[in-house]
Design brief:
The chain has 11 helices and 10 strands. The chain is of the alpha/beta class and 370 residues long. The strands form 2 sheets. Strands 3-2-1-4-5 form a 5-stranded mixed sheet, with helices on both faces. Strands 8-7-6-9-10 form a 5-stranded mixed sheet, sandwiched between helices. A hairpin with a 2-residue loop joins strand 7 and strand 8. The longest helix is centred in the last third of the chain and has 27 residues. It is globular. Bound molecules: 5'-O-[(R)-(carboxyoxy)(hydroxy)phosphoryl]adenosine and zinc ion.
């Protein structure tokens, strides 16, 4: 077959920009055509016969800046993103040893997230794309999280169920194939990360607190306090963590001056309550869909008790469980560049040269164009 009639996939350099909350992330993912084996005609190449590889990434976390306020201050977040963006983009291009002109697509987090913070990333991405005359592509932040396991050396394959547990979201999502996501259940109020952070604050720990609380819990008795397991026995796959925080507050007030003496037991008991609910619902979701693979994404995925409990439960059910490396669990630019690369790879979207960008602070993944 004549090669001239065949559209050969080109190598693409894709820049990803993440600014939805308190992390400024930039990364460069390269999409490469898989070299056809000798004897295989190039006309057989389909858009997905390409592979994405991470070339460079850089991240700046604002945690220390927000810590004195006990939580993220949106205006400070936006201002800091403004200051970090250009140096981070330059750092990534230097790491990849590529000129700006070599970029073929600029991707950014379009939502959900903090409006001002999102606007910074979108503005930088649109300006860069316009200056380079290259297409611009807005990415759903949660699609980035769902696809982040593909950044690991040992990626899962579709289909799988994703337990997404971050500071802002607690969701069980069925990922049947690229671009096909079904929400199975989610928190009706606080996210699991929020439950960790709010409880940690009540125990006198600094924001974000989840990791510090789990550290304290190592020395505590998880059965010391019987905190509620909200919606544990509900038939659906939804979560609710707001009541747990209230229950911790009541207990802390009851203990008064004695609180510090019981801090480790309190931490262990809160953690046990959150983890039990997450594990039960994750396993119930697998039973419902019949899938044999669970992927854990989001910052709470770093929790050692959650990891150990899921490992045991999945082994029992003969289900595979994937924990992407922590740097890809928390917010980063690589997952945004990768999501853009995969949307191109699967022929879903290629970006636009209409540079009138928008951000969607509240945006359901179900609304994302397949
Ligand atoms: O995914 P992420 O970095 O940010 C959001 O997109 O929200 O998740 C941050 C959340 C915070 O609530 C933090 O306390 C929690 O992840 N976290 C943990 C641990 N490490 C981080 N929660 C429990 N145990 C941990 N070891
Ligand atoms: Zn996130």
């Amino acid at each position: 077959m004549g090669l001239s009639r065949v559209q050969t996939p080109q190598k693409m350099n894709i820049l990803g920009i993440e600014t939805s909350c308190d992390e400024s992330g930039v990364a460069l993912v390269q999409l490469l055509p898989i070299q056809p084996q000798v004897g295989i005609e190039l006309s057989c190449l389909k858009p997905f016969e390409m592979q994405a590889s991470l070339k460079a990434h850089a991240l700046h976390t604002q945690i220390a800046m927000h810590q004195p306020y006990g939580g993220v201050v949106p205006e400070l977040a936006s201002r800091d993103h403004i200051q970090r963006m250009t140096p981070l983009v330059n750092e990534v291009m230097a790491q990849a040893n590529l000129p700006m002109e070599s970029l073929d697509l600029i991707a950014y987090t379009k939502g959900p997230g903090l409006a001002g913070a999102l606007l910074v990333g979108a503005g930088v991405a649109a300006s860069l794309a316009a200056a380079l005359d290259k297409p611009l592509l807005g990415i759903h932040h949660l699609e980035g999280h769902l696809l982040s396991p593909f950044l690991s050396d040992n990626p899962p394959s579709f289909p799988f169920v994703c337990l997404l547990v971050s500071g802002g979201h607690t969701q069980l999502m069925r990922v049947s194939s690229m671009g096909h996501y079904e929400l199975l259940g989610q928190s009706v109020d606080d996210a699991a990360g929020e439950a960790f952070d709010k409880s940690a604050k009540l125990l006198g720990l600094d924001y974000p607190g989840g990791a510090a609380l789990s550290q304290l819990a190592l020395k505590g008795n998880p059965k010391a306090f019987a905190f509620p397991r909200p919606l544990l026995h509900s038939k659906d796959l939804d979560f609710s963590f707001a009541g747990l925080k209230t229950s911790v507050l009541t207990q802390v007030n009851k203990l008064g001056d004695q609180m510090m003496a019981h801090r480790e037991d309190l931490a262990a008991s809160v953690q046990a309550a959150i983890v039990e609910v997450l594990v039960k619902k994750a396993m119930a979701s697998l039973a419902q869909t019949g899938d044999r693979c669970l992927v854990v994404a989001g910052g709470v995925g770093a929790n050692q008790l959650l990891r150990a409990a899921l490992q045991v439960a999945c082994e029992k059910q003969k289900v595979e469980v994937f924990f992407p490396p922590l740097e890809w669990c928390t917010d980063n630019g690589a997952m945004i560049a990768l999501a853009a690369a995969m949307r191109v790879q699967y022929g879903i979207e290629h970006g636009t040269k209409d540079y009138g960008f928008e951000v969607l602070p509240r945006w359901s993944l179900a609304e994302v164009l397949q």
